[in-house]
Amino acid sequence: MFVNRKMSENYLNNKNLKNSGVPIEYTREQVQEYVKCAKNPEYFVEEYVKIINVDKGLVPFHMYDYQKKMVDEFHNNRFVICKLPRQAGKSVTVTGYLLWVILFNDSQSVAILANKERLAIELLGKIRLAYEYLPKWLQQGILEWNKGSILLENQSKIVAAATSSSAIRGGSYNIVFLDEFAFIGDNIAEEFFASVYPTISSGKSTKIFVVSTPKGLNHFYKLYTDATQKRNEYVPIEVHWSDIPGRDEKWKEQTIANTSEEQFRQEFECEFIGSSNTLIAPTKLRNIPFINPIFDNGSIQVYERAEKDHQYCIVVDVARGNMGDYSAFVIIDISEIPYKVVGKYKNNTISPLLFPEIIYNTAKSYNDSYVLIEINDIGGQVADILHNDLEYDNLLMSSVKGRAGQRIGGGFGANVVKGVRTTKQVKSIGCSNLKDMIETDKLIVNDFDILTELSNFVSRRNSYEADGGHDDLVMCLVLFCWLAKQEYFKDLTNTDFRTQFLQEKNQFIEDNVLPFGFIDDGIEPDVNVVKEDSDWLKL
After folding, report:
1. Domains in the chain, number
2. Is residue 85 part of a domain?
3. Is the omega angle on the peptide bond into residue 338 within 30 degrees of 0, that is, cis?
C-alpha cells in the first residue's frame, strides 16, 4: 500500500509532476507565496519560471524591461500585437504568462497556434518544461500530459496546433496566441480571421495575442499598422534590437557581416520589407497608406460610394472560378488626378457565367462606369455577355493598329474586339505607367490587398509577375495604366470634350429624331432599374 500511495502522488511516475487528487499541505510561507503568484503574473514568471539557456542550461527566467511590459499588457488588455526582432525571448515571455493563466485560473482554454504545427508543439514544450520545475505546492494535478495538449485538475487546458481556419473551429477559447503570424500565408491568415476570429472575439473576456517578426506587407503588417493608427482594438508593442541587453553597434556590424543588410533590417530593425526587385520602389511601398472599407462582404470592398457627376472606370481580370486565380476588378474614380481606387472585387469561385451580372450591377451603381475587360482567356466570353446579353453600352473596345499595337476606340471598324488582350507591349506600357503614377502620387491605391500584391510584384524574365501568391488586382491596375496612356481615354476624361460630346449628341437627337416623332408599337421597353442602394453590394 505504501508503494501504491507513493506511485499515485506522481503523474505517470514522473517525480516532477503532481498527479490529480493528491492533497497538498501548505506552510504559511507557501500560502503567502501562492497568493503573491496568483495576484501578480510578473512576480510568478520572475520567481518560478525556468528556461534553458544555451550557455548555462536550466536557469531562472529573469525578464528584461520590455518582457515585463509584454506580460503587463497581456494581463491588462484583450488584444495585443507585438513586433519584435529575432532572438528577443518573445516565445518564453508569452509561454510564461500562459503558464500563469492555466495554473491560477480555473476552466481556462488556451490555444497556441504557429505557422507550423511543429513550432506550436515546441512552444508547448517550453510550458511543459517550466511546469516540471515548479515546486509541487504550486502545481495543479495533471489529467492529460500529451505532446500537443495539457489538461490540469482545475480544468484549465492548453492545445498546440498550426494556424489554420480549422485549427480551433468549434472550440471555446479564453486566450489564443498566434506566434510568428507574419510567416503564415495570406490566404490562411484571411481564412483564419474570417472563420475563427468572430467566434473567439465574441466573448467579453477572450484574449488574442499576436507576436511576430515582420516579413513583408502581409496580414500581420495590416494588423500592426491598424493598431498603431488606432483602427482596431489591438495594443501595439514594438521592441528594437537595441532594447535587448548586450546588443550594440559592434554586435550590429557582426550580424550584418554574417547575414545581409536587408535581412538585418527585416529581422532586427523590424522593418516591413517586401520582395526585392519590386516594380514599385520598396521605400514607396512601405509608405503607401491603406484604409478600411466602408462595406465588405468578403468578395467586394467599397471605400467610396459613387458621387454625382463623378466618372468611373472598372478594369476586369477574369478567371475560371475553379479556386485557382481570382476573378477580379478594380473600381477607379477618374474624375480628376490623382485617380483613386474606390472599390475592388476578388473571388476565385465565381463562375464566368455569373461574373458579368456583378460587373453590370457595379458599373450601373457607379454612374455607368467605363468597363475594360482583359480577354486573353475566357474574358471574351464575359465581355460578350456584358455587351450582347446585358446590353451594357460603356464597354471599352480595342483594335489593332499595326506597329502601334492595340488602341482603345469607339468600337467601329475592322479588327475591333470587346476589351483588350494583355500582350508584352500592353503589359510593358502598363507596368511603366503604373510605377510612375504610384510613385508620383497620381494614383491612390487605398486597398490593402492591392498593396500586398504590389509588394510581391517583381521583375522576372524581362517582365513583372507575382513572387508567389497572386497578381490579379495588380494586373487590373496595369491594364488601367495602359488605358490611361490612350488618346481615347484622355478624351473621355477631358471635361470640355465630354461636355461638347453630350451637346453634340443631344443636338443630333433633336435634328434627326424629334421631327419624325415616336412610334408606339405597343411593346413595353426593357427597363433596367438600379436602386440607390444597389443589390450588388449584397452579392
Report:
1. 3
2. yes
3. yes
Nearest to 360 by CA among 327, 328, 408, 393: 393
Residues 102, 231 contacting (CB under 8 angstroms): no
Could you tell me which residue, 469 or 484, shows the higher pLDDT? 484
Report the alpha-carbon distance of residue 533 to residue 537 in Å, rounded. Answer: 8
Give the start-end residues of each E strand in 25-174: 50-53, 57-60, 79-83, 109-114, 142-145, 149-152, 157-162
Residues 22 and 141 in one domain: yes
* Range of lowest pLDDT (101-110, 144-153, 509-518): 509-518
**Threshold 0.85, pTM exceeds:** no
In the annotation, is 180 catalytic? yes
Structural contact between residues 369 and 394, judged by C-beta atoms closer than 8 angstroms: yes
Given 33, 73, 180, 453, the catalytic residue: 180
Helices (H), ranges, 406-534? 424-439, 448-454, 472-483, 487-492, 495-512
Residues 309 and 259 placed together within one structural domain of the fold: no
Strands 79-83 and 149-152 come out as unpaired
Q: What DSSP string describes 349-368?
A: S--TTTHHHHHHHHHHHTTS
Between the alpha carbon of residue 458 and those of residues 340, 448, 471, the distances in Å are 23, 18, 10
Q: Which three cell numbers stand for residue 350?
A: 465565381
Q: What average pLDDT is seen over the chain?
A: 85
Check if the beta carbon of residue 131 is closer than 8 Å to that of residue 99: yes
DSSP state of 54: T
Question: What average pLDDT does this structure show over 129-139?
Answer: 93
Residue 506 CA to residue 208 CA, distance in Å, equals: 61
431 within a domain of the structure (yes/no): yes
* 354 in the same domain as 205: no
- C-alpha gyration radius of the chain: 30
Higher pLDDT, 70 or 287: 70
Q: Is 189 exposed, middle or buried (0-12, 13-18, 19+ CB in 10 A)?
A: buried
